[in-house]
Amino acid sequence: MEQVLLNIGFGNTVVAEKVVTILSPNSSPMKRLKDEAKDERRLVDATHGRKTRAIIVTESNHVILSAIQAETISQRFSALKQQEEQEK
């Protein structure tokens, strides 16, 4: 079984089918989501010390921080989905 990987920046990838949502981190609820995930040890920081520009939530309820804009990751995700549909 082949897994499609979504590039979230700086050499980091996630399994595309496990992504539930891609969010912008600028609102208070997103900051709370990030803090709660950190407290519960569900937070993965893939920013390499850069500013968080996107929050990715997975099926397993892990929260992944990325330094790539949420819009860019969403476009990559859409492109993967379109490519997957064309291959069927």
Alpha-carbon distance between the termini? 14 Å
What is the count of structural domains? 1
Class of secondary structure makeup: alpha+beta
What is the number of helical segments per DSSP (H or I, 4+ residues)? Answer: 2
Number of β-strand runs: 6
Low-confidence parts: none
Radius of gyration: 13 Å
The best one-word shape is globular
Largest sheet: 4 strands, mixed
Looking across the biggest beta sheet, what order are the strands in? 3-5-6-4
Helix amount, in percent?
25-40%
Q: Beta-strand level of the residues, as a percent range?
A: 25-35%
What is the succession of H and E elements? EEEHEEEH
Mean pLDDT: 94
Descriptive notes:
The radius of gyration is 13 Å and the shape is globular. The longest helix is centred in the C-terminal third of the chain and has 18 residues, at 70-87. It is of the alpha+beta class and 88 residues long. It starts with a strand and ends with a helix. It has one domain (5-83). 34% of the residues lie in helices and 31% in strands. It has helices at 28-39, 70-87, and strands spanning 5-9, 12-15, 19-23, 43-46, 54-58, 63-66. It contains two helices and six strands; from the N terminus they run βββαβββα. It has a four-stranded mixed beta sheet with strand order 3-5-6-4. The chain has a two-stranded antiparallel ribbon with strand order 1-2.
